[in-house]
Write a structure and sequence with these properties.
Elements lengths: L34 H13 L7 H11 L3 E8 L5 E4 L10 E2 L4 H8 L3 E4 L5 E9 L2 E10 L4 H22 L4 H6 L6 H9 L4 E3 L3 E8 L7 E8 L2 E9 L3 H20 L4 H15 L5 E9 L4 E7 L4 E4 L5 E4 L16 E5 L5 E5 L16 H12 L5 H15 L8 E8 L24
Antiparallel strand pairs: 1-2, 1-6, 2-3, 4-5, 5-6, 7-8, 8-17, 9-10, 10-11, 11-12, 12-15, 13-14, 13-16, 16-17
């Protein structure tokens, strides 16, 4: 149609200025670079070869170039009690407690927090989330803020989190920042084998924590979400210190080997038992190993010597998932006993090691499962996220025990949110965007 007319004789509209010729969308948006695209793109382009020590200053430089000031980047410490600042050119900030501070509010809520300053400017505190895993908090000050600024700020926080996680694979810089007190070799070994502490999707969420964070020995956990099945396991290797940590490392590796090979729960149990009995004769590991079908809500598990898990209803009601207990791994003499339970949408299940309830208090009495239930009910009534529930519960239990940790204590909380939608890629799916996200 060289004359610029359509087949029916009407004039053909010219495409919007800057509209895509290759990349294009239904709204005919311009391909001309916006301020947001420029700053995000510049960060991506420059970060590829940037040494880890300059990632924080790079983020600060780009934010300052588009009107930001007083840029701070905090990383959570291993104990999840404080936020530790990155340092370098363009960065400001001091260590901050997670409880009771402005950056702590953003960290706890997983949402943006705004502080109005005396001169009328606003300081934005933005949780840095890698997927759903909490990395820390990004903060900076703008002279004025509208929804476009908030949208760009949130994306800057997300990109900063991704850059930090990527660079962390080949540096100790960020680990040193996160380490707020000396860490034992056994704890270091355990932290190297752990998956991300938090995993959240629209259908299922999981969070775990180890105590004492800087001196844990034989406790560990692992999980994986494959298709519509969440696999999870909690382990407590016999003994203390480095010997227990070494055994736990072998156990986790064996579990992952069997899980990735597609082994069923009974086969996983046998595989773990065979490896432990041949590698550590006479020693054992207690465990809970299970699966959750995210389409049906059916939970299946083998309890190999742990306290019974607790099911927490959305109402806050707590009940025990009791049943037969199989022998610990390494001492098995019979087939495992697989148990099942039907969860309802919103149900949570708490798995924990005996160190949570068997610790002796100052008066000589055990902390006890009844006291654990009280704390679980109290925390659940506050209607907070899975990740924050585990963090608060762990610290409440530690404080109630007077900081006593003669044994490791581990918590893993799983929440089934309901079956997946038919179209899991649909835009705007509930739970598919970070909390506090501002839509396009």
């Amino acid at each position: 149609m060289p004359d610029g007319r359509s087949e029916n004789g009407g004039a053909v509209s010219a495409p919007p200025v800057g509209a895509g010729r290759g990349f294009a969308d239904a709204e005919g948006r311009s391909r001309i670079e916006s301020l947001g695209e420029r700053v995000l793109g510049s960060l991506l382009d420059r970060a590829h070869l940037m040494p880890p020590r300059l990632v924080g200053p790079l983020v600060a430089q780009e934010i300052i170039s588009v009107g930001g000031a007083d840029v701070s980047i905090w990383l959570q410490d291993y104990d999840q009690r404080s936020l530790q600042p990155l340092t370098g050119p363009g960065l400001v900030g001091d260590p901050a407690p997670i409880e009771g501070s402005w950056p702590g509010r953003a960290f706890i809520s997983d949402t943006r927090v705004e502080q109005e300053l005396p001169d009328g400017s606003r300081r934005l505190y933005l949780p840095m989330l890698d997927g759903s895993a909490r990395i820390g908090v990004l903060a900076f000050t703008l002279s004025a803020v509208d929804d476009n600024d908030r949208r760009l700020a949130q994306r800057l926080a997300g990109l900063t989190a991704d850059l930090l996680v990527t660079k962390a694979d080949y540096t100790s810089t960020f680990d040193r920042v996160r380490t707020a007190e000396p860490m034992s070799l056994s704890a270091h070994l355990q932290w190297q084998t752990l998956p991300p502490l938090i995993m959240t999707t629209p259908d299922v969420a999981l969070a775990g924590i180890l105590e004492p964070a800087y001196d844990v020995g034989g406790d560990s956990f692992d999980y994986a979400l494959d298709e519509h099945v969440l696999h999870w396991a909690v382990f407590d290797a016999m003994g203390h210190g480095l010997e227990a940590a070494t055994m736990a490392t072998i156990v986790v590796a064996t579990y992952r080997h069997g899980r990735r090979s597609g082994a069923s729960l009974p086969d996983l149990y046998v595989h773990l038992d065979d490896v432990l009995s041949s590698t550590y004769p006479g020693r054992f590991t207690t465990a809970q190993v299970g699966q959750l079908d995210t389409e049906t809500g059916v939970l299946s598990w083998v309890n190999a010597g742990h306290p019974a898990a607790l099911r927490i209803r959305p109402t806050g009601e707590v009940t025990e998932l009791g049943g037969p207990i199989s022998r610990p791994l390494g001492l098995a003499d019979a087939a495992p006993r697989v148990q099942t339970a039907q969860l309802a949408p919103g149900d949570r299940v708490l798995f924990f090691t005996d160190g949570v309830v068997e610790e002796r208090l100052a008066d000589g009495h055990q902390f006890g499962e009844a006291r654990l239930r009280e704390f679980v009910e109290r925390t659940s009534r506050e209607d907070v996220s899975v990740s924050e529930t585990v963090r608060q519960l762990s610290h409440a239990l530690m404080d109630a025990r007077g900081g006593r940790t003669s044994d490791d204590a581990s918590l893993v909380l799983v929440e089934w949110r309901g079956p997946p939608r038919d179209d899991e890629l649909a835009r705007g799916i509930i739970g598919g965007l970070p909390a506090g996200n501002i839509d396009r």
